[in-house]
């Protein structure tokens, strides 16, 4: 049977105190709605219907950041007035086939575990008309309660605001995630009224209606270890809680897969991380985009890595920032280095402290140890770049390349005014400004001669008036 998912995301999220629609607030640097859409997509549905309302235009624009495959699955519909969760589902219903199985998810519950949704679907496939995910949290206050008969048969759901004191004592709550069919939604949603404490059309009333109609409704208790993952986000405090939960789960998974983390509580994943054997990540490292580590890679404290691949046996020393760069094997970078986009560092390259590298290809074994800017450059193997070397790649209007051969010695405090070429084996004396081609194996030096003035007296401070 085909599956369609409906994601409710029309609420405004008043308690976020923000101009950004609630479902666009980020968990692990991604709108929380994207997490829900990805989980939904992992169930291989035919379509994911996202119901938008408050700030819907902003949400729709944000959806364009999803991958083309996900965008093709997502169908947007609008709920102009937020009249309740049943009304929200009704807005998507014209697009849903009667013959489909349907799962309803909330856009503000980003960590909903896939396994629990699979259990809802399994119950449908075993004959239930409606399966709903329940939980027994320590504090049920605020949630809809699951009302069962003396024999344990599910009778209905009562919202917190409508519950009697006896019903409020019920510990089993409604998480909000349900599975049913398009046909049943078409038949029963129109029968839901809004005669309740909030004057809303409650999707939760579907349970009672189906039970009264003699249909099989099952409440499936989520596994205790998944209860926290079903936490919805209504305010910044809950957002922070869910962010930590996400990070804790990601870190634990990495530990189980063999990554060594100095402290799983001080590690932030804001993208994907892939790693080989025996990698070590020190505290306060941030991973963004797609990061790949080979075997035996060490990442020092406080590094920020975005879209980089780092080869075997490389060591990235503390507080190094790098983006869109490829590092081959046995490279050493940092501390306090910055790799801006577009670099390839071949085997055994060394980039030291306070060195900035951008859009550069650096060959085997070359070293730039200190205080240097290498931008738009191609540098051959086994070259030494002295402290304070600057590629002057920008003439105020255009960028130009600097080409340096192999076995070159660039003395400290050299300026290379691009476009310029230094050929293999050349030597550049300290303090030189290179403005034209340096021939292979030659020495160039531009240095004002040293003057010496004997018995020089320094100026002294004038006494204050
Ligand atoms: C809902 C459930 C409650 C459950 C709780 C779990 C109902 C009536 N109640 O209550 O049983 O315990 O979730 O968190 O369903 N939304 C719309 N349009 C609307 C109203 C809501 O899109 O008109 C969306 C919200 O943006 C949100 C979700 O539906 O993503 C849930 O709505 P919310 O108002 O937060 O429901 P709760 O009162 O928390
Ligand atoms: Ca809610």
Strand segment count: 35
Please bin the fraction of helical residues.
10-25%
Main beta sheet = 21 strands, parallel
Structural class: alpha/beta
CATH topology of the largest domain: Spore Coat Polysaccharide Biosynthesis Protein SpsA, Chain A
In the residues, how many domains can be counted? 2
**CATH architecture group name of the largest domain:** Alpha-Beta Complex
CATH class bucket of the largest domain: Alpha Beta
Number of helices: 9
Shape call: elongated
**Mean of residue pLDDT values:** 97
What does this protein structure show overall?
With 465 residues, the protein is an alpha/beta fold. The protein folds into two domains: 3-230, Spore Coat Polysaccharide Biosynthesis Protein SpsA, Chain A (Alpha-Beta Complex); 259-444, Hexapeptide repeat proteins (UDP N-Acetylglucosamine Acyltransferase, domain 1), CATH 2.160.10. The protein is built from nine helices and 35 strands. It has a 21-stranded parallel β-sheet that branches. A seven-stranded mixed β-sheet has the order 5-4-1-6-10-7-11, sandwiched between helices. The longest helix has 21 residues, at 236-256. It is elongated, with a radius of gyration of 31 Å. The termini are far apart. The model has no long low-confidence stretch (mean pLDDT 97). The protein binds uridine-diphosphate-N-acetylglucosamine and calcium ion (CA). The site of calcium ion (CA) has 2 residues, from loops.
Quick summary of this structure?
The chain has 9 helices and 35 strands.
């Amino acid at each position: 049977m085909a599956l369609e998912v409906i994601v409710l995301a029309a609420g405004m999220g008043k308690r976020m105190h923000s101009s950004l629609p609630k479902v666009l607030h980020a968990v692990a640097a991604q709108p929380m709605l994207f997490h829900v859409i990805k989980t939904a997509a992992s169930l291989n549905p035919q379509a994911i219907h996202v119901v938008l309302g408050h700030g819907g235009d902003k949400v729709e624009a944000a959806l364009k950041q999803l991958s083309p495959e996900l965008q093709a699955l997502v169908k947007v519909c609008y709920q102009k007035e937020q009249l309740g969760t049943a009304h929200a589902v009704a807005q998507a219903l014209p697009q849903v086939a009667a013959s489909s199985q349907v799962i309803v998810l909330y856009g503000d519950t980003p960590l909903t575990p896939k396994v629990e949704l699979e259990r809802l679907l399994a119950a449908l496939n075993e004959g239930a008309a409606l399966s709903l995910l329940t939980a027994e949290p320590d504090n049920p206050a605020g949630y809809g309660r699951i009302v069962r008969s003396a024999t344990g048969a599910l009778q209905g759901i009562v919202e917190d605001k409508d519950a009697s004191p006896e019903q409020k004592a019920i510990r089993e709550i409604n998480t909000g995630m349900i599975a049913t069919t398009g046909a049943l939604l078409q038949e029963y949603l129109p029968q839901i009224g809004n005669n309740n404490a909030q004057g809303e059309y409650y999707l939760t009333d579907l349970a009672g209606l189906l039970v009264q109609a003699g249909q099989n409704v099952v409440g499936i208790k989520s596994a205790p270890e998944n209860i926290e993952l079903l936490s919805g986000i209504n305010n910044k405090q809950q957002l922070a809680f869910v962010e930590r939960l996400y990070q804790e789960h990601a870190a634990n998974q990495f530990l189980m897969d063999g990554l060594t983390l100095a402290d799983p509580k001080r590690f932030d994943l804001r993208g994907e991380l892939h790693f080989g054997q025996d990698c070590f990540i020190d505290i306060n490292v941030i991973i963004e985009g797609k990061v790949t580590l080979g075997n035996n890679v060490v990442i020092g404290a406080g590094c920020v890595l975005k879209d980089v691949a780092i080869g075997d046996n490389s060591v990235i020393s503390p507080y190094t920032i790098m983006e869109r760069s490829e590092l081959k094997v046995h490279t050493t970078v940092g501390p306090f280095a910055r790799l801006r986009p577009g670099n390839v560092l071949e085997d055994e390259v060394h980039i030291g402290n306070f060195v900035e590298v951008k859009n550069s290809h650096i060959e085997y074994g070359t070293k730039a140890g200190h205080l240097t800017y290498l931008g738009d450059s191609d540098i051959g193997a086994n070259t030494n770049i002295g402290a304070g070397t600057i590629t002057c790649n920008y003439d105020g209007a255009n960028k130009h390349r600097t080409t340096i051969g192999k076995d070159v010695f660039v003395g400290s405090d050299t300026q290379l005014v691009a476009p310029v070429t230094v050929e293999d084996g050349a030597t550049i004396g300290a303090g030189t400004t290179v403005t034209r081609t340096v021939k292979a194996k030659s020495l160039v030096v531009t240095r004002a001669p040293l003057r010496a003035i004997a018995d020089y007296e320094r100026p002294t401070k004038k006494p204050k008036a």
